[in-house]
Design a protein that fits this description.
It holds the Pfam family PUA_3. With 393 residues, the chain is an alpha/beta fold. It has 12 helices and 20 strands.
């Protein structure tokens, strides 16, 4: 692959992506998943990557070392490096669930590896890693020989790579159970690694759940897009007066109820509402209902930059509604997991939402993803989760 003049600058800064509009020529009969060498317009070697024929990110980089082989030892080396990082911060993680590989941020593009107790859950999201799947899985078995390995490559993003959606157990241990229990800062949580969202749970919100627990003492809490009630569980731990969990999925709410029972939490002061959050907030507004604390942790509102305006409207609408429901002196915890949503724009949207709702906000904390979801210095796109803790008047 040969780049256009000037398009080599990002690779010289060790950024791991090559976009389709940066390419001058692709030599030879190359198909998705093929290993390729990348050169600048002067035919100077730059990097080694894999090709993706159907994505705007036409290549992702494996190595900037021309002598490095992309084989099982390569993957084992990357896994060990990532494992050592997590070991160095394990006292901060304070959980038996963590992200081992955060894709490009751990130098393994398009690859997610999450650990839930003795289960390894893997997502392969790109044609390049799909081609090396056997090497990756063999390396995982070498590094974590006593763990079950389960694949959750059923994310819709694989369709953009023209890859089939697939999931299933890859190891041969007979005692595998698709549901497991993790602990997080003293709270027990059921995780369905076969049918749950993503790889089973949102471990990137670990620190933020703990932060929320410090603001809810004797307060009424509305936990929107609650999934299996992670934030709700920590609201209970923080001695909330009453907690309302809202989610559109009955399966998620059933697991949420199990989570409260698992921790011996009194469910008499907890509601589980199966409803669309936008609809529920409008109903609460019309009823004049108020809460002390509202948590907004919606799914991703945008998959491409073309959807930015629509996503901005969605965030503004839901935050305006939530702010209208918060009592004076209450708190809003609001998040965006859309990596393409700029942090500055997200903050502006929340500020505009407050104006429209006739509220005054003070941002008291800026929130991000958990420490086991690192942000590589040469890959700022790895910073995807953004949140604001707001005092509301």
């Amino acid at each position: 692959m040969i780049l256009k003049k000037g398009r080599e600058k990002s690779l010289l800064r060790k950024h791991p992506w090559v976009f389709s509009n940066s390419i001058s020529d692709v030599l030879g009969d190359v198909v998705s998943g093929d290993l390729i060498d990348i050169y600048d317009f002067k035919n100077q070697w730059l990097a080694k990557g894999s090709y993706s024929s159907s994505s705007q990110i036409r290549s992702r980089i494996w190595s900037f070392d021309s002598s490095e082989k992309i084989d099982q030892q390569f993957f084992l080396k990357k896994l060990k490096k990532a494992f050592n990082l997590r070991e160095s911060i394990k006292t901060n993680i304070n959980s038996n669930a963590y992200r081992l590989i955060a894709a490009e941020s751990d130098d393994l593009p398009g690859t997610i590896v999450d650990i839930y107790d003795n289960n390894v859950v893997v997502q392969l999201l790109w044609a390049g890693i799909e081609r090396f799947r056997k090497d990756l899985f063999a390396s995982l078995q070498t590094l974590l020989p006593n763990h079950h390995i389960y694949e959750r490559s059923d994310a819709n993003i694989r369709k953009k790579e023209e890859l089939p959606l697939t999931k299933g157990l890859l190891s041969q241990h007979s005692d595998f159970n698709s549901k497991c229990v993790i602990t997080e800062n003293g709270v027990k949580i059921n995780v369905d690694i076969e049918n749950g969202h993503k790889t089973g749970f949102y471990i990137d919100q670990r620190e933020n759940r703990n932060i929320v627990s410090k603001y809810v003492d004797n307060k009424t809490v509305l936990n929107c897009f609650s999934y299996t009630a992670g934030f709700g569980l920590f609201a209970f731990k923080g001695n909330a007066k009453h907690i309302t969990n809202i989610d559109v999925s009955n399966l998620a709410l059933d697991l949420a109820k199990e989570n409260f029972i698992l921790n011996n939490y009194n469910t008499k002061k907890v509601d589980f509402i199966n409803k669309d959050v936008f609809k529920a907030l409008r109903e609460y507004y019309n009823e004049g209902k108020k809460f002390d604390v509202i948590i907004l942790d919606p799914p991703k509102f945008m998959e491409s930059k073309k959807q930015l305006n629509d996503a901005a409207r969605g965030y503004k609408d839901i935050n305006r509604l939530a702010l209208s429901l918060i009592k004076p002196g209450g708190f809003l915890f609001t998040f965006s997991c859309s990596g393409l949503m700029p942090t500055e724009l997200f903050q502006k949207i929340i500020s505009d939402s407050a104006l429209d709702a006739g509220k005054e906000i003070k941002i008291i904390e800026k929130l991000s993803q958990s420490q086991d979801h690192p942000i590589s210095g040469n890959f700022p796109e790895g910073s995807y989760l953004k949140g604001l803790a707001c005092y509301v008047n």
